[in-house]
Design brief:
hpI Integrase, Chain A; 2 domains; two-stranded antiparallel sheet; 60% helix; elongated
């Protein structure tokens, strides 16, 4: 008996594509949602032949239903990316309708939202060639967003930071060190990467490794983020460094004072930190105008 398409897709992702358990679970959940929607939408069973006849209007209807569930633009774009992968598996790449994903509105430069930051990190991790590479990319991007590290600071970490505690000591510009709190999800992401990576974690060796075991290059991370933001419809200002900006702006919006933020970010001058007061004000004006179009 032939297994249901989402189950066969799960086997393909884990066995043939060697995707992580997290990725398989997320992509199969999307496949199941699509099949359930189309069964109701078309009023009949959904098999490979039916998926081969999928058109752009069907996809738009599915995405509209998902957006009604409260999905952000970035999450909806990830859903569309997962749908494309499932349809390609079931019916071939030529069966995937051409449909532009939702885009984030451009305007005043602003930090990306928490949902967009997580969606970006997930999208990069999902594209990892090996499960440990996906775990590595997830951990690196969470360090930038969840701890406010510069990409160079994250990639300069060595095995000496292990085992992890509630804080991490970071060496920043001009060899200035600072202590940064580690949130539980960030710590868990690093621990999961360490448990999977095949190169060891000697004290003097890089914590984050490239595919062949050498130090992970910043360019690799930037390229991955560039590809992911395109698939998610995020703006070209969504860079690894933008995650650090978002960390700062979100903390400021939650009531953090500038002196504390200066220490967390490792800024030599308070004037470097004060930029976030203007960015936060611009973000608040975006929210105000969206809520009051006649403002």
């Amino acid at each position: 008996m032939t297994p249901p398409l989402p189950l066969a897709y799960a086997t393909h992702l884990s066995r043939d594509r060697r995707r992580s358990v997290h990725t398989v679970r997320a992509y199969v959940a999307t496949a199941e949602r699509l099949v359930a929607f189309l069964q109701d939408h078309w009023g009949g069973p959904v098999d490979a032949a039916a998926l081969g006849a999928l058109n752009a209007a069907d996809l738009r209807a599915f995405l509209a239903a998902r957006r009604a569930d409260g999905l952000s633009n970035a999450s909806a774009a990830r859903e569309l990316s997962a749908v494309r992968g499932f349809v390609t598996f079931a019916a071939g790449a030529e069966a995937v309708p051409r449909l532009r994903g939702p885009r984030v509105k451009k305007g005043v430069p602003r930090p990306i939202s928490p949902a967009e930051a997580v969606a970006l990190a997930e999208e990069v991790a999902d594209e990892g060639a090996e499960p440990w590479i996906g775990a590595r990319d997830w951990a690196v991007l969470l360090l930038l967003y969840g701890a406010g590290l510069r990409i160079g600071e994250a990639l300069a970490l060595t095995g000496a930071v292990l085992p992890l505690g509630d804080t991490i000591r970071v060496t920043g510009k001009r060899d200035k060190t600072r202590v940064v709190p580690l949130l539980p999800p960030v710590r868990a992401a690093i621990d999961a990467y360490v448990a999977q990576q095949p190169w060891g974690t000697a004290r003097g060796e890089p914590l984050f490794r490239g595919a062949k075991g050498g130090p992970l290059a910043a360019g690799v991370v930037r390229r991955s983020v560039r590809g992911a933001r395109g698939r998610l419809g995020l703006g070209d200002r969504t860079t690894p460094h933008a995650l650090r900006h978002s960390f700062a702006t979100h903390l400021l919006g939650r009531g953090a004072d500038l002196r504390s933020l200066q220490e967390l970010l490792g800024h030599a001058s308070l004037s470097s930190t004060q930029i976030y007061t203007a960015v936060d004000a611009a973000h608040l004006m975006d929210v105000y105008r969206a809520a009051h179009p006649r403002a």
